[in-house]
Amino acid sequence: MKQHTWLITGCLLGILIIGSAVNTQASSIQSADTEGTIHFSGRYEPIGTPDPPPTDSVKPPSGGTLPQTNTVMHYQWIWLGGLFTVLAVTIGIKRNTLNLKNERGNYT
Q1: Is 33 part of a structural domain of the chain?
Q2: What is the pLDDT of residues 74-99, one digit of tens each?
Q3: What whole-number distance in Å separates Cα of residue 10 and Cα of residue 64?
Q4: Domain residue limits at 89
Q5: Element (H, E) at 71
Q6: On the CB side of 36, how many CA atoms lie within 13 Å of its CA?
Q7: What is this structure's pTM?
Q8: Is 87 inside a domain boundary?
Q9: What pLDDT digit, counting tens, does each position of 7-53 carry?
Q10: 81: which of 17, 22, 51, 59 fits an S-S bond (Cβ 3.0–4.6 Å)?
């Protein structure tokens, strides 16, 4: 019965590890505190074209989606979790096997 419990626990832990670490996203907020005040009044109206005129313009990518920032896949944690799960299941099975051999040895 213990072997089945270890096996079920290991499988559930493996599913939890693989299912929860698929995609992560983080956001950063940057701000600066300054002292003083700035007051704008009126309306900005550019006078002519800038000197020298801009030659290169930034073009959006041709794909359907824009690249996302702060999105990282950490596959090493998935592999490490799987390794620990396999290790825990293997140790549990070996302990159960040794306990069964010791119990059988006491009765004969």
Answers
A1: no
A2: 788 889 999 999 999 999 999 888 88
A3: 41
A4: 75-103
A5: strand 71-72
A6: 4
A7: 0.33
A8: yes
A9: 888 888 888 777 765 566 667 767 766 677 777 778 877 777 767 76
A10: 17
